[in-house]
Amino acid sequence: MAGNIFGKVFRVTTFGESHGSAVGAVIDGCPAGLEISEDDIQRELDRRRPGQSNITTTRNEKDEVKILSGVFEGKTLGTSIALMVWNRDVESDSYTPIKDLPRPNHADLTYQLKYGFRDYRGGGRSSGRETLARVAAGAIAKKLLSILNVKIIGHTIKIGNVEAEKVAFERLEEAENNAVRCADSKAAETMIKEIERVKEEGDSIGGVVEVVAINIPAGLGEPVFDKLDAELAKGVMSIGSVKGVEIGAGFNVAERKGSENNDEFYYNGEIKTYTNNSGGILGGISNGMPIVIKVAIKPTPSISKPQKTVNLKTYKEETIVIKGRHDPCIVPRVMPVCEAMVAITIADFAIRNGNINPNLVSI
Amino acid sequence: MAGNIFGKVFRVTTFGESHGSAVGAVIDGCPAGLEISEDDIQRELDRRRPGQSNITTTRNEKDEVKILSGVFEGKTLGTSIALMVWNRDVESDSYTPIKDLPRPNHADLTYQLKYGFRDYRGGGRSSGRETLARVAAGAIAKKLLSILNVKIIGHTIKIGNVEAEKVAFERLEEAENNAVRCADSKAAETMIKEIERVKEEGDSIGGVVEVVAINIPAGLGEPVFDKLDAELAKGVMSIGSVKGVEIGAGFNVAERKGSENNDEFYYNGEIKTYTNNSGGILGGISNGMPIVIKVAIKPTPSISKPQKTVNLKTYKEETIVIKGRHDPCIVPRVMPVCEAMVAITIADFAIRNGNINPNLVSI
Amino acid sequence: MAGNIFGKVFRVTTFGESHGSAVGAVIDGCPAGLEISEDDIQRELDRRRPGQSNITTTRNEKDEVKILSGVFEGKTLGTSIALMVWNRDVESDSYTPIKDLPRPNHADLTYQLKYGFRDYRGGGRSSGRETLARVAAGAIAKKLLSILNVKIIGHTIKIGNVEAEKVAFERLEEAENNAVRCADSKAAETMIKEIERVKEEGDSIGGVVEVVAINIPAGLGEPVFDKLDAELAKGVMSIGSVKGVEIGAGFNVAERKGSENNDEFYYNGEIKTYTNNSGGILGGISNGMPIVIKVAIKPTPSISKPQKTVNLKTYKEETIVIKGRHDPCIVPRVMPVCEAMVAITIADFAIRNGNINPNLVSI
Amino acid sequence: MAGNIFGKVFRVTTFGESHGSAVGAVIDGCPAGLEISEDDIQRELDRRRPGQSNITTTRNEKDEVKILSGVFEGKTLGTSIALMVWNRDVESDSYTPIKDLPRPNHADLTYQLKYGFRDYRGGGRSSGRETLARVAAGAIAKKLLSILNVKIIGHTIKIGNVEAEKVAFERLEEAENNAVRCADSKAAETMIKEIERVKEEGDSIGGVVEVVAINIPAGLGEPVFDKLDAELAKGVMSIGSVKGVEIGAGFNVAERKGSENNDEFYYNGEIKTYTNNSGGILGGISNGMPIVIKVAIKPTPSISKPQKTVNLKTYKEETIVIKGRHDPCIVPRVMPVCEAMVAITIADFAIRNGNINPNLVSI
Q1: Residue among C80, C217, C42, C81 nearest C147 (CA)
Q2: CA C77, CA B90: separation in Å to the nearest integer?
Q3: Are strands D281-282 and A75-76 parallel, antiparallel or unpaired?
């Protein structure tokens, strides 16, 4: 059983290789009556698009999305929604020389071992380009969640050793104002400089993204296995470069006593907690407080520094120098993907929990 | 769509409330021909059992497992396997006074909000007792994986501020020699003292568990969504007290350059990596190196110190003092559960990938 | 991927071999707040029970059901509901002599080929005894559907060459008044005589059951694959002895013109059809008219007449004479199973479609 | 939870409305290494294509398929395969006048009731045009099954009152030689005349298709719910015009004794049955004999004779006369769809059962 379908009731199937004809998604389970346009989706795709700043890859893709089905007279039909983007600026030639040389920390080796055959051009299906389809589907999930006033905001909190200061929820969207998507504009400058520095070295750098979801209705999440935090963890961990996930206080809980970590209750119209160490989720179910997720993103594995590898045909050890057009820091482009996975996951649970009617919405 | 089923082909359905009649699991998708006995399962349950040491709860449950179906003449039939444990030492009385007082960082509030009705005795379905069924199913997954020589070992690496020294893979199983399940015996002593100290305070403490899986065949994991790391993250994050998951270098990748984080390849009969920052998973597929997962476990929320809460009937703010029998540190008992979720997840992928025949195994 | 789980959101997992310890079901996805008792379930089990009349097997099982979880203070919790019946009157000895002789039209051969190992006692998992778990789960589905006033009624319309006269909906429940469960009491008598006749011959006989579901809300069914009729067909065809399924006019449509088969519309408060050739389903979605399904049930394959078979060890052709306690006509006992599968299927769709809240019902 | 995904491991997601931009399918779970070309798919689409003979609709669609992903250098990659056909010859105008008039035995009414909003042009998603995507996916399933030498052949056995004579398996493919796809060429002539006759009347006619699958390995099917016959029944019953399904002897079993219906065993290298009343399936598992399914197909509901309906806006009763281009008998065009659903179902089980490696095939 392969794994190109995500979600249980808002189900997203994606397809597409980096240098194939097209990349896209089909969504099964979006209710009828939701206003959706190609612009709604394009806006999100543009945030993930290559070439959007000088700290991203220079691959030039407009990534223009086309809705093939499921929308009629500007509204969803309740039928499956197909979304597609043609691949245009494909430079496959730079991959031919390294066809048999698996790139360290890429999926070349494991795809070869698993399938015995692979599209080596630009990483094929294992390319980050695959995430375009997630962002497209996520745009629809976001639109659907807007019915509940749910808002999902990502922002960079760390690049290398540079950490952002804590910023109030209301100001998080300022993250969109700079190339690294950090809401602390001062830290953002230092981060950008750090990225430019490693770029010059032919190297890359990692970081941490925080995704915050607000106005979440209480009750989302399905114990004991399909807990909200469990599916969120799956969702973001399924993104290519992610190596760690924290909910609320995350790994900090290890050093704490119960009396420090417990979120005590108070009442102001509804039951709330003074603190939010639990990140908005108790027993796998949302409690109405903001959901807070931190995501560790590894440095782009494609670097131009020489690295040791093994030839897949000769089994000889060789040195690889990766050319092509790569992001020195993938963090700002992975962020919309993290948001998309969070949006898809929450949309899925909102339908599962009955907050959104599975057949028909009216806004 | 509720969420009491885990796995896609090795599917585990669990049932049972803490103070109900019984807790159990049904496994759909275990191949025929696997030798399995109640002893195989009991051994694992005993590692999770309450009352196993003086740093765990004093609830006295023998947790004797019974196999109800799916096994004939000592071997699995390929049919669904039902496992059950009766609940015996139930002290429901201590819960009546706090029936309407949600305990901070417990699921009382969210279950009440979601289902409008709950079994308040001992946390009902949201109790840690639910994980017994995971461990029982995990014992079968471990037995199944033993066909491939896969071994799954958990050990505590941190309790509060006490961190264990790094221990070689070969010595990890020594973790079983002490109550806190830490392979560094010296750190274990300090950890136990720390737990005893917080216990006296009526408080609790968190920690970090590492689970290592060795002899993993390359090829496990199903991109782009059902990646091995994604499902592992879901599996462990679905355990009640878990707030963070790391694969390989985890959050450390944020501070690294690509040249530091990439695992270069060499060849000695098969292609291996010098380092294992990727934690044995590339592109969501196992590469044959050990799988390394770190899991952050929060301090037990049940503490006897007074805490603020809100009455579910009157909406008045009140103070709660939790009595009953609780673990001052749940880490050593959560560990077998983490191992179980890792085992179930890997077993699922081993069948999905064709490493284990779905119908019939012979050992 | 094995197949012991039925349904998408009201998910029923069953377990149990005919001569093992127990048979049972776990239901994931029944909303909280539904009043349910062991009596509700027992009533349905008694309709399927062996030994209920002199035209059924003499195996003497009381089939007393026990609810293990998911119900508290007489109401469902929204958690998984485990139901169990112990096997008592097990006569395994009669099966030892025919251990290696597959019985014609039984699953002995195919289980042996698929799993390489089987519980030969009483057919093991392939025994009709497995359907007990379906009926138990179906009882809960029926109770859940009673919220919508949905009623599901099965009745025998044919045994061998004996056909029942058409009976009005209101009188269908009279089928319970005789051993063969035929609403036409006169035909019932002839049917019973026919069954007694074939029983004396050491033979068996087939029949047709009709299941009618009334008060069905419009809108149930999920095109284009999970259509209501498609899942109903799967549900009843998954019952051991079923070889054919018809919706509405069924195979009669082949001989008709469109002008004869189309159900024209009229209006009396809601849009209805004059005729019901479509059996209450259009485009895979319920239209509010009664759902009508016909199910062909084969003659019990266990007969005492000598039959040709092949020894699984020696591959020699041999003659088999089946002893043990068998139903000369399984139709009246399969009927509650058909009803159960219809009930489970419709309950599943009623939640999927939002007619029943997935978390909480109040009656 | 919507229903546009079919299959458990060979999973087909389809999309597309009749008069939207495109219709297509995405296949998740086709192993790598399978040679597949657009021609392989086109060949099957041409059998379903409108306008292929003078007894089919005159809508003129070439239905040219494009593979968007999942195939590289002529072979599958093990990644998701996207297939697409643009809609070209769209005549939406004829539907505007009947926008509010649900056509009898069409899904207009039920879509309106379920989704509250629908694409009324050509039936939208409920159009038979949706089945194009099934046939495209089925072509890949057939190619995959060719590895096991499995062959799936459909042929018409009845149109109205005209029944075909029984034809030997070897001659079934001759059905392709006439417009009605009947292997009995003499009956075919009569059938065609009958269709032409009802066409002149502005009426339509139903029929029965038989699908035979040969060289099926024993062991396919997953009891107790995902039995081979159960999933086949679901698969064909999910096709728009199907109202009945029979496996093997089907409804004839009702009239038979066990001694007449049982298939006795003999041995000639493998264990076979003299007769095949069970249609190749015992206990839900294939036994190696040919699988035989009969499918009842209703007369096309679109007829030009006046019919009674109810206006969806005014709730007034009106008369509808359906114009547009319709098939007087849909049987010969539904047949490739039946074959496709059978192929997809069997491919799914062949992977589930381990007969086909889930990752990689080599032919």
Answers
A1: C217
A2: 19
A3: unpaired
Taking a C-beta distance cutoff of 8 angstroms, is the pair C195, C131 a contact? Answer: no
How distant is the Cα of D128 from the closest Cα of chain A, in angstroms? Answer: 15
Burial of C148 (0-12, 13-18, 19+ CB in 10 A): middle
CA neighbours within 13 Å on the CB side: how many for B321?
4
Q: Which of C123, C201, C124, C204 is nearest to C160 (CA)?
A: C204
For residue C219, list chain A residues with Cβ-Cβ distance below 8 A.
Answer: 359
Return the domain boundaries, chain D: 5-353
- Please tell us whether the domain made up of C5-353 is placed in CATH 3.40.1800.10: no
A77 and D3 within 8 Å at the Cβ level: the answer is: no
D352 touches chain C (CB under 8 A): yes
Separation CA C127–CA C116 (nearest Å) = 18
Report, as ranges of residue numbers, the positions in chain D whose pLDDT lies below 50. none
Helix (H) or strand (E) holding D139, with range, is: helix D131-145
Q: Which two tokens stand for residue D323?
A: 């114009």
Higher-confidence residue of C188 and A49: namely: C188
Question: Is D99's Cβ below 8 Å from some Cβ in A?
Answer: no
In the beta sheet, which residues pair with residue B207?
Answer: B159, B297
Contact by Cβ (8 Å): D302, D59: no
Say if CB B106 and CB A283 are below 8 A apart.
yes
Contacts (Cβ under 8 Å, ≥6 apart) of C317: C308, C309, C310, C311, D265, D266, D267
**CA D275 vs CA C206, C329, D227: distances in Å:** 18, 22, 21
How does A113-126 read in b/e, with b if 16+ C-beta sit within 10 Å?
Answer: bbbbbbbbbbbbbb
Element at B72 (helix H, strand E): strand B71-72
Q: Does residue A328 contact residue A198 with C-beta atoms inside 8 Å?
A: yes
Which two structure tokens, joined as six digits, stand for D207? 């029929």
Q: Nearest CA of chain B to the CA of C185: how many Å? A: 41
DSSP D338: H
Partner-chain residue, chosen from A4, A20, A118, that has the shortest CB–CB distance to D28: A4
**Segments of chain C assigned E as strands:** 5-6, 11-15, 22-28, 65-67, 71-72, 75-76, 81-86, 151-159, 162-163, 207-214, 242-247, 265-267, 271-273, 281-282, 285-286, 291-297, 307-310, 317-320
- Residue window 130-169, chain B: list those with CB within 8 Å of chain A: 130, 158-161
Distance CA A86, CA A135 (A): 15
Nearest to C264 among D207, D278, D309 (CB): D309
State chain D's maximal CA–CA distance in angstroms.
70
Per-residue model confidence as pLDDT tens digits over A96-153: 888 999 999 999 999 999 999 999 998 999 999 999 999 999 999 999 999 999 999 9
Q: State CA B185 to chain mean position distance.
A: 22
Q: Between D145 and C88, whose confidence is greater?
A: D145
Partners of D126 on chain C (C-beta within 8 Å) are: 223-224, 283
Q: Which two tokens stand for residue D112?
A: 């309106």
* Closest CA of chain C from A232, distance in Å: 20
The sign of the CA dihedral D227, D228, D229, D230 is positive
Nearest to residue B339, comparing CAs of B143, B196, B81?
A: B143
Token duo for residue C318: 């041999």
A272 touches D: beta carbon within 8 Å: no
Neighbours of chain D (3+ CB pairs under 8 A): A, B, C
Nearest alpha carbon to residue A302 among A199, A208, A192, A193: A199
> What residues pair up with C159 in beta bridges, in sequence order?
C162, C207
pLDDT in tens, B56-66: 877 777 899 99
A354 to C353: CB separation less than 8 angstroms, yes or no:
no
